[in-house]
């Protein structure tokens, strides 16, 4: 809802300051400056620097605190971490509004300080990990991926409604999208406070029929779940280790254990390189603005096209296919692996078409195809959780959050340099970053195709 309006506010603040310093260029403007006059190199360079560094600063809280909040979730519950994430995000948004509202007296660069609020809860990426942890806590592994598809599809459904609505509200009043966003965050916080805590399933027998006896967990040392010796552990991709002790304070050691589990290095490889490739989509807005002369309010339709493909894949096609094939006896792990392979191939195709787009309709089509590949993430999460003890789920998802944040920190500057290669020669972007992303995704698809599940 606030992605494009935020960029618009930043651009407006920078633009006003620029023309205040160059009053001879703004003698005919009494109140507001036309957006087209802000599309000049000095303003756009400062805007790119502001947004780029804000992206980095927003990633740091999750990078520094995600594993800590994973430990907190194991001790005090997932609901507490989710509530903190909502509160931190709300505080960050309110700070941005304060700085942009007082941009005539406060420097716009103070919006970077909004990242400090994200240390409360660890950012939205940690909240996303907690949501998937709750599903992994409460749903049997044979049904887990289907529910993860639906959970992953919910943001795509909201994306179908939010960008067009945001564009309409921006035309009425630039502040209206922020009012809606604050209301949504407040409602989320209330829902989290009222929701049940899923951590109780770790220490009691399951009451939900979705939970199978194989996935029940009792504290280590109890009669039901004595620690297994290495000789007792089954070999292959199904290897499991005893869950972490609640009293253990060296929570980082559990991450080392995760990396030693058969099959999980492959999962972490995809968790890193897939987001690194997908970060190139962040430059699609600028690509459309340069090559097709779109205004910022028009770029909201780009997200709409991608969300359409994502919604079809995660809400309709994949859950239905998962349900049908599961009833026919196909193992959940094999289904997840095949979805990962197919999704990576579709994503690679989408980025190739994105790089070749010379018409706006081709750009929208390629983003729609990219959206169809969004089933890869929940399938990968379902595969990863099936390889480990349930007590490690929170540690898994928070460590994945760290891996993805590092990938975005590396991928952001890299893709930015690739995107701007053609612009140095006074041309529009050639979309080279999209070709590199396609190459990465194709390589991951090949690796996934040679990956085997051991019996």
UniProtKB/TrEMBL annotation:
<feature type="transmembrane region" description="Helical">
    <location>
        <begin position="432"/>
        <end position="453"/>
    </location>
</feature>
<protein>
    <recommendedName>
        <fullName>MFS transporter</fullName>
    </recommendedName>
</protein>
<dbReference type="InterPro" id="IPR011701">
    <property type="entry name" value="MFS"/>
</dbReference>
<keyword id="KW-0812">Transmembrane</keyword>
<feature type="region of interest" description="Disordered">
    <location>
        <begin position="221"/>
        <end position="242"/>
    </location>
</feature>
<feature type="transmembrane region" description="Helical">
    <location>
        <begin position="337"/>
        <end position="358"/>
    </location>
</feature>
<feature type="transmembrane region" description="Helical">
    <location>
        <begin position="174"/>
        <end position="195"/>
    </location>
</feature>
<dbReference type="Pfam" id="PF07690">
    <property type="entry name" value="MFS_1"/>
</dbReference>
<dbReference type="GO" id="GO:0016020">
    <property type="term" value="C:membrane"/>
</dbReference>
<dbReference type="InterPro" id="IPR036259">
    <property type="entry name" value="MFS_trans_sf"/>
</dbReference>
<keyword id="KW-1133">Transmembrane helix</keyword>
<feature type="transmembrane region" description="Helical">
    <location>
        <begin position="147"/>
        <end position="168"/>
    </location>
</feature>
<dbReference type="GO" id="GO:0022857">
    <property type="term" value="F:transmembrane transporter activity"/>
</dbReference>
<feature type="transmembrane region" description="Helical">
    <location>
        <begin position="80"/>
        <end position="98"/>
    </location>
</feature>
<feature type="transmembrane region" description="Helical">
    <location>
        <begin position="255"/>
        <end position="273"/>
    </location>
</feature>
<keyword id="KW-0472">Membrane</keyword>
